[in-house]
Amino acid sequence: MAKPKFKFQMYKTLQANIPNIYADARKAADEIGIPKEIRGKFGLTGAISGCPAPLRDDIMKAGEDGAKEVIPLAKLVDDIREIVKSVYGDEYDAAPTSTCEAGLWVTFDSLFSPPALGRGDNYRSRYIALYEKHLHHQGAYGRPYPPRYKDILADRGTTAGELGFYGKRQNNLDTVIVPLAGARYDVHGIKYHPVPMLTDVDPEESLEMITNHAEVHLPFLAGFTGLGYETPGYGYAVKDEEGTPLLQKGLGELAHGYDLPYVIDNAWGLPFVGCNPLKTGADVIIYSMDKATGAATSGLIIGREDLMVPIRRALGMHGDRYGTTTSYGKAAYVTFDAGKEALLTQIQALKVLRDEPEVLTKPVDGLEKIVKEEFAQINLPSHLKNGIVISKSYNSTAVEVNYEKTWQGGELGIPIFSIEDMYAGTNIFQTGCAQMGIIPTVAYDGNIYISPGLGTCDSKGQLIEETMRYGIKGLVKLIEITCTYAGLRE
C-alpha cells in the first residue's frame, strides 16, 4: 500500500478499505486462536454504559439479599452518606443517582444555572470547561463560547438537534471552552474532526490561560469543571509528590479564590481510591458507579455539604418540608432516583473500596503486564512503536495506550479516529474489534483505555489472564492491519 502524502488521503484510503480491514481482522482472530465460544462475550473494558461488566459475587449477593428485605430507601442513602463521611470527613456528603449523566445534570442545574423563578427576565451565567476529551459530557450543558465552538457537539451523539446533545443545554447557561496550553487539536479521522491530544499539556501555563478567561467572564461566572482522570492521554501527566495532577489541584485553588465551585466529572473513576477531593480541591465529584466501581448501573455525587444541600433538595433527598433530616421523595429531579437494588450494590462497592481496595487494583497490575508484553511485540516501524506510551490508572482501573507521539516530526502516525467516528461507525479500532469477536473500548483521539471486567474477570473480580490476553493480542493485530492499509507498513 503506497504511503499517502497528506493525512486526509490516509483516512480516505482507510474508508475505502474498511471491508478489507474487516476481512483481515476476522482472519486474524482465527490465527490468534480466539475461542469461538467466547467471541462476542468478552471485551477490552467493562466500563462502557452500553455493555457493563458482569457483577461480582459480593455485589450480586448484596443486591439479592437486600432485595428480599423491607428497607426504606432513605436509610440506604444514609448508609452511603455514612461510608463517604467515614473516608472524606463530616464536611462531605453524598447523593446517589440513576446514572452519572443524571448526576452531572442535576449538579450543573443546581450550581451553575440561573434561577428560573422571579419577576422579569432571567440573567445568564457561565461556567468554564476545559477543552479536553469527552467534552459532550462535562462541557455540553450550556451554549458554547466563543462562537467558533458553537457546532462542536453537532455530530457527537446518535441523535441530532434538540433530542441530542443540544437538548442538554440548560436555561440561560453558557459554557466557556478553554483550550489547554501544550495541547494539540489537529483534525483527524474518517469523520474528519479536531481531536484533543493532551499528552504535552503544561498545567502552569494552562492555569494562566484559564485565569485570563475567568477574569473576562467573572461577572457571569458560576464555576469550573474538568475530568478527574490522571493519565497523560487526558492531560494530567504532571503531578505533585503525592500523585495529584497539578492541573486539577490548580483548578481547585483557582475556583476557591473566586469562591466558585469546582466540579469534577470522574465517570470512569473510583471513589476513595481515585481522584481525591481532599487533594484536588474538588467541591463536587460525580461517578458512574457501574464503570470502574463495579456496582449496578447508577451514579453517585460526592461533595462539600454546603453544595450538596441544593443538589439533594433537587433530588428530593434533603428532608421533608415539615422537618426531617432525610427523605426519598418528590422534587425536580426525582426522575434521577436510583433504585433499591442499585443502592444496595453501591453500599457494598463502597465498603470494598474503603476496606479492600486491592480487589479492584490487583487486576489492573495484571492487565498492565499483559498490555506491555503484547505491545512490545507489535510489528510496526520503530518510530511508530516508540511513540506508543502505556500508563496505568488505579482511578479508572485501566491501562492507557496513547499513541499521539507517533505523529511527531511531521510524519504520518498510527491513524487517529475522532469521537465522531465512533458515532458514525467509522472508528476502525472499535468496529474492527467487533469483527474479531472482541467487544471494543474507548479508543479515539489517539488514546485507548483498556480495563478488566467484561468476560475477563472471574466472579470474584480477579483477572482471567488468558482471556484478557486474547483481547490485547486482537487489538495489537488490528492496529497492525490498519497501519498496513494506511500505507505505514511495508
What does this 3D model show about the protein?
With 490 residues, the chain is of the alpha/beta class. The chain folds into two domains: 176 residues, Aspartate Aminotransferase, domain 1 (Alpha-Beta Complex); 299 residues, Type I PLP-dependent aspartate aminotransferase-like (Major domain) (Aspartate Aminotransferase, domain 2, 3-Layer(aba) Sandwich), CATH 3.40.640.10. Helix content is 37%, strand content 14%. The chain contains 16 helices and 18 strands. The strands form five sheets. An eight-stranded mixed beta sheet has the order 4-13-12-11-10-5-7-6, with helices on both faces. Strands 14-15-18-17 form a four-stranded antiparallel beta sheet. A hairpin with a 2-residue loop joins strand 2 and strand 3. The longest helix has 21 residues.
Structural class: alpha/beta
Strand order of the largest sheet: 4-13-12-11-10-5-7-6
Q: Which regions contain 5 or more consecutive residues with pLDDT less than 50?
A: none
Number of helices: 16
CATH classification class of the largest domain: Alpha Beta
**For the residues shown, what is the average pLDDT?**
96
User: Which percent band covers the strand fraction?
Assistant: 5-15%
Shape: globular
CATH H level of the largest domain: which superfamily?
A: Type I PLP-dependent aspartate aminotransferase-like (Major domain)
The name of the CATH topology of the largest domain is Aspartate Aminotransferase, domain 2
Terminal residue distance: 8 Å
- Annotated CATH architecture of the largest domain: 3-Layer(aba) Sandwich
**Beta strands, count:** 18
